[in-house]
Amino acid sequence: MSKSEDDNEIITMTKAQFLNFKSEIRQMYMEEVGNTVKQAKKSREKDKIIQEERNTFTRMLGNNSYQNSQENLNINKIFSDFMVEKEKTIAPKYYNFHMLVLDIFLKICGDKSVSEYKRKDMVNFRGAIISLPIRPDRYLKNYETDNPVEVLKKLKGNESLISKETYNGKYHAVMSSFFNYCVEQEYLKVNPFKNGKFSFSNQEQIQKLEDERQPYSTDELNAIFQSEKFVNRHRDKTFFCPLIALFSGMRLGEIAQLRPKDIIEHNGMLNFNLFHSKTKIKTISGYRIVPIHHELIKLGLLDYIEEQKKRHKTDDKFIFDIRYNEKMKEFDGRFWGRFLKPFKDNGTVRGQVVFHSFRSNFRDGLESLGAKDSTIDQIIGHSSSKQKLTRRYSDKKLKQIQSDLVQKVSFSGLDLSHLYK
Question: Is 277 exposed, middle or buried, given 0-12, 13-18 or 19+ CB atoms closer than 10 A?
């Protein structure tokens, strides 16, 4: 169809006329596609030809003024289309986070046609995010509003703010990916978020490495595990989960899904089995077998598991009662945060350490034994390159030497003998 005076007529069409015209055009193109397919039946290019014809049809309709009206460039509508594609590849937790980021973006930059967003909107969004407190999901509770603009006016001055690293890896990643989608769909020509990440000086990068997932110090471990608060507490998730993490490197979500039936024997020792369909692990590398360290057995873990099995009258129930947060799509680890709060308040434990820090301790323990990075990654279920994953998980189970390595992990200066059963 050539450009002519007909183009001007299309521009002034009513919606009803446009839909009728669109139907006629579709029929014409489908007939043409049908003829093309008949000619290509014996060709391996059949699917390619069909797709090219469909793309041509879509582009032609996409070039008229009605299709690109402000109504059809509404950011909420296009973001919904974007998420239809995105939800196929991301976890539910991150789906919800995408929607949260969009909501914050709209409240900071305004609800406009996607074609109206400019570089200055990205700059405003970026500046606002790193001025906001962490955990936007708690704004309403803490500030009586979930509007980030209003939250900025109510800051108390002692909040932990969203870092540049978090902005780059999460907030910027979401919006840049979305606007890339808009460019691909020809809704706009330039992604306003392109090359908009924060850059870091050498000093900032060094500080980032020092702060990133710091392990507990020996003094902090002793302060926690020798405290009256820990020693005298009922043996439950708060007692066993940190100890399991310390001697296995397991994530909280992995520990939360353990069942009595997941205790299996391999390489002459007992292991946690994370290889089953009911387990939802963060990455494919997380599906693994994890040796149960001899310290955990001395601490009475197996006895506790047997008690839970009898209590539930089945070996198919979760060992630990850890609530699953439907909104965040993850197991709720706040029980450990609540336990640690007094230690952080009095300065016994640093504010940076969290439950995940035990995982760093275990990694350090393996490194001190001279373990290779590839071996450590396999034991703790850390993501690696696709090539390494293919090689490493062809056998899915630890070799004897790797299982023995786990049993040798120890932490100089840490004494847990007072907790033995």
Answer: exposed
Q: Phi and psi dihedrals of 83, rounded to 5? A: -75, -25
Residue 194's CB is within 10 A of a number of other CB atoms, namely 13
Angle at 246 between CA 241 and CA 247, to 5 degrees: 100
Q: Tens digit of pLDDT for each residue in 153-170?
A: 999 888 889 988 899 999
Domain that holds residue 256: 218-419
Q: What are the structure tokens assigned to 327, written together?
A: 């909104």
How many other C-beta atoms lie within 10 A of the C-beta of residue 357? 19
Helix, strand, coil abundance in the chain, percent, nearest 5: 55, 5, 40
CA pair distance 353, 126, nearest whole angstrom: 27
Three-state secondary structure call for residue 331: strand
Tokens encoding 223? 């302060």
- Predicted pLDDT at 330: 82
Number of domains in the chain: 3
Q: How many CB atoms lie within 10 A of CB 112?
A: 15
- pLDDT confidence of 96, banded at 50, 70, 90? confident
E-only strand ranges, 146-267: 263-266
Do 299 and 158 lie in one domain? The reply is no
Rounded to 10 degrees, the C-alpha dihedral 268/271/275/281 comes to -150
Last residue of a domain, one of 211, 242, 272: 211
pLDDT in tens, 228-259: 999 999 999 999 999 999 999 999 999 999 99
Could you say which DSSP state residue 113 is in?
B
Alpha carbon separation from 101 to 105, 143, 153, 176, 218 (Å, rounded) = 6, 18, 20, 11, 39
- Is pLDDT above 50 for 3? no
Same domain, yes or no, for 147 and 277?
A: no
**232 in the same domain as 355:** yes
What pLDDT, in 10s, does the model give residues 331-366? 899 999 999 999 999 999 998 899 999 999 999 999
Q: What is the pLDDT of residue 159?
A: 87
Instruction: Give the domain-ending residue among 22, 49, 67.
Output: 67
